[in-house]
Amino acid sequence: MTVLTIAVIQSYTALMPRPFTDSERDAIRRRLHVAGRDLFARRGLRATTVEALARAAGISKGAFYLFYPSKEALFLALMEEIEVQIQARLEAEVAEAPREAVRLLLRGSLTAQDDHPLLDLAMSDEAVAVMRSMSSEDQKAFLNRDIELTARIAGRMAEAGLRLTVDPAVLAGVLRALVFIGMHRNDIGAELMPAVQDVLVEGLARTLVEDGGTSGHEAEARDPDGRDAGTRTPDGRAARRTGTGRGGKAAGA
User: Fold this and answer.
1) What is the C-alpha to C-alpha distance for residues 76 and 86, in angstroms, rounded to an integer?
2) What per-residue confidence (pLDDT) applies to 212?
3) At 163, phi and psi to the nearest 5?
4) Is 1 in a helix, a strand, or coil?
5) What single-letter DSSP state applies at residue 17?
C-alpha cells in the first residue's frame, strides 16, 4: 500500500462520523428534536437545512444521517412526538376529572398549538406534501392513534357514568377538525377566539355526551327530581303525569 493510498484512507476515515454510545445517541436525538422544533417553526421546512439542524445539535452533517435519512423524516418524528405528548397530557387530565373528559379533549384540541407552535407549520403546503408522502401504513397508524385515544377516553367516561354518543372514530375526527380551527385562530380573530372556543366546547359537549344512559334531550325535558318538565302549573311547578305507572296505578296516586 502506497503512502498516498494510506493518506487518502486516513483522510476519508477522518470525515466519517465516529460511532456514538447509547447515551450519546439519546442526547443527540434530543438535541436534534429541540433544534427541529425551533428551526422548523421559525424558518419553515423548505428553508431549514440539514447543515443548520446538525450545527444546532452540535454534530456534523454526516452524523445527522445516522439518526434520520432526511430533514423530512425528522419533521415527521416531531409530529409524532407532539401527538404523543398531547395525548399523554389529555389522558392525565381526564384521569383527574373523567366527567369532564369530552370538554378537556375539545378544548385541548383547540389550544394544542399554544404549547406546540410547530403545529402551525403543519398547515403549510410543504408540510402537507411531506405528510402525504407517508406510506399508507404509517398514515393509518397515525390516524389509529387518535381513535385508540378516544376509545380509552370513552372507557373512562363509562366508568364515571357517562356515555359517548358517537363512535370513538367520529370523536377523533372532531378533535382533528378542532386542531385545524385552532391553527386558524388569527384568521378568526385573537380577541374572538376565547369566546369561539367556549361556544364550540359547550355546544359539542352537549351533543357528544349522555349522562347515565339518558339522552340529552330526555334529560333537558326533566326536572332535577326526574318528573317531566313539559307540562307545568301556572305557578311554574312541573305537573304530575296523568298516565299510569307500573301495575296500572296512576303515576300521581
Assistant:
1) 15
2) 66
3) -130, 135
4) coil
5) P
Other CB atoms within a 10 A radius of the CB of residue 48 amount to: 22
Of the given ranges (9-18, 130-139, 160-169), which has the lowest mean pLDDT?
9-18
Phi and psi angles of residue 222, each rounded to the nearest 5 degrees, phi first: -125, 150
What is the residue whose three cell numbers read 379533549? 105
> b/e for 219-229, b at 16 or more Cβ within 10 A?
eeeeeeeebbe
- Which has the closest alpha carbon to 93: 82, 104, 106? 104
Q: What is the pLDDT of residue 111?
A: 92
Domains in the chain, CATH or no CATH each = 24-69 (1.10.10.60), 71-211 (1.10.357.10)
Q: Are strands 162-164 and 209-211 parallel, antiparallel or unpaired?
A: antiparallel
Cβ within 8 Å of residue 206, ≥6 positions away? 216
In the predicted structure, residue 17 carries a pLDDT above the cut 70: no
> What is the C-alpha R_g of the chain?
28
